[in-house]
Amino acid sequence: MLVNDDHSTQKNLPSSSCIRKKRTVSRIKQNPKQKMGDIEDLLKYLCQRDKKNSWLTVEKEISSFQHSLLEWYRQNKRQLPWRQTLMEQHPNPYHIWVSETMLQQTRVTSVIEYYKKWLQTFPDIPSLAASSLERVNEIWAGLGYYRRAKLLYEGAKTIMSCFDGQVPEDIRLLQSIPGIGPYTAAAIASIAFNKPYAVCDGNVFRVLSRLFSIDLDISSSDNQSFFRSLAQFLIFKDKAADYNQAMMELGATVCTPKNFDCKHCPVHHWCNSFQTATERQVPLNDIVGQYPVKFNRVKQSNEELQVYLIVFANYFLMLKNVSRNLLGNLWHFPYVTLKRNGNELTEDEKLQHERCLSRVLHSCGYPLNDTNDLLKLLYESAIPIGQVEHLFTHIKQTIYVKFVRLSSETSLVVENSSHRIGGIDPNDESIEYRWLTKEQMETSAISRQMKKVMELYQQQKKQKFIHSFFC
Ligand code: SF4
């Protein structure tokens, strides 16, 4: 017996309190290498938990399930740009790679625009490999997780140097390329080359957990292996490309997190959660809405920033994030971090931000003798224009925005090419800065939260009562 008896002896669906209790499949946890070999035990587990899952052991039923799903997909699939590009009768693997990487960031509707822009700029792997990281970040700007853009770029270089510019079909070779992990490798191998590898994104985890009323926490990596084995078992091997896309499409358009449409679902006949709700004559949400089970929601920390829009003539002062963190290499407005994890930053930490700004303004020719002059400028001239919020996976940022117009009588050197200034003492890092107009910002690598700051500025500028100040 693969699973602990506590699970296997349950005949009925677990109660909600039971669902909330954390579970993992014990043997898979103990012996992860056996997960694919244990498919029979896995099926036994699902069938013993609930007879409604027993169609999994009937070949004809599995085939009907697959055909029903594929037929629905044929008739209902969305016309997405990466589904329309062919290379020797197959979807172009480079396009699948780009789209799958982008889809890990945000919703399909937002990705389309970025995807088109990306392919206009880098139509193929040689053009991406020959570009620069700065240009790659500019095109990716706004999607977040810039590390993924960098990995796409590095991956393209690897394909040029190790694979003669051709995306390999072999899943192990695919995983040797920077930026291509097991998920993306399975997506490229199956969608572009029709190889029989199941692709499991969040949509597929949700569909499977509802199809078989699986009360295992999908945020646990052990349990994810369980779901992957199940997905691999169900795949229609001859039509892996369409089957994988059909499962993901079902989760994205019908079996959605909240507004699931079971009545029009092509597989409701096989769906444990739907059948259970129907039998018990209870609202669908009482059963379907309980799945998937997820315990380890990411804890978010709070951060507060004070951002300064420092403007001279029509130019905004921008600094480059030179660190290797989430937003490395992107341009941002000068800011001071006020709080991290709800705690105020120390005076020393704040002073470091202020000293950096002071050095930049001094380098442009602004008459500042020391940091006190800068503080005087910021406190006396800065006008608060509002705040914006931005969510990263782990961080909720509250950004207070102040506007500072430098006097036109000041003689400043304002250029949009970037300048680097070295540290004055060993504690100072070198800083890169440039001055950009609003229009130039649109084609520069600027983070999403700084774009929100700019949008706030534009909205405020439109309001008449402050119009005279901004212009
Ligand atoms: S019947 Fe409902 S819960 Fe089941 S797979 Fe379809 S949409 Fe999801």
UniProtKB/TrEMBL annotation:
Molecular function GO labels: 4 iron, 4 sulfur cluster binding; 8-oxo-7,8-dihydroguanine DNA N-glycosylase activity; adenine/guanine mispair binding; metal ion binding; oxidized purine DNA binding; purine-specific mismatch base pair DNA N-glycosylase activity
Domain HhH-GPD span(s) in chain numbering: 102-253
InterPro entries noted in UniProt: DNA_glycosylase, Endonuclease-III-like_CS2, HhH-GPD_domain, HhH_base_excis_C, HhH_motif, MIG/MutY, NUDIX_hydrolase-like_dom_sf
Pfam families noted in UniProt: HHH, HhH-GPD
Coiled coil segments of this chain: none
SUPFAM superfamilies: DNA-glycosylase (SSF48150), Nudix (SSF55811)
SMART domains, sorted: ENDO3c (SM00478)
Organism superkingdom: Eukaryota
The protein's required cofactors: [4Fe-4S] cluster
Entry-linked Gene3D superfamilies: Helix-hairpin-Helix base-excision DNA repair enzymes (C-terminal), Hypothetical protein, domain 2, Nucleoside Triphosphate Pyrophosphohydrolase
Keywords from the named record: 4Fe-4S, DNA damage, DNA repair, Glycosidase, Hydrolase, Iron, Iron-sulfur, Metal-binding
EC number: 3.2.2.31
Catalytic activity: Hydrolyzes free adenine bases from 7,8-dihydro-8-oxoguanine:adenine mismatched double-stranded DNA, leaving an apurinic site
Cellular component GO terms, alphabetical: nucleus
Gene Ontology biological process terms in this record: base-excision repair; mismatch repair
Major enzyme class: hydrolase
Family label: Belongs to the Nth/MutY family.
The protein, known as: Adenine DNA glycosylase
Organism lineage: Eukaryota, Rhodophyta, Bangiophyceae, Galdieriales, Galdieriaceae
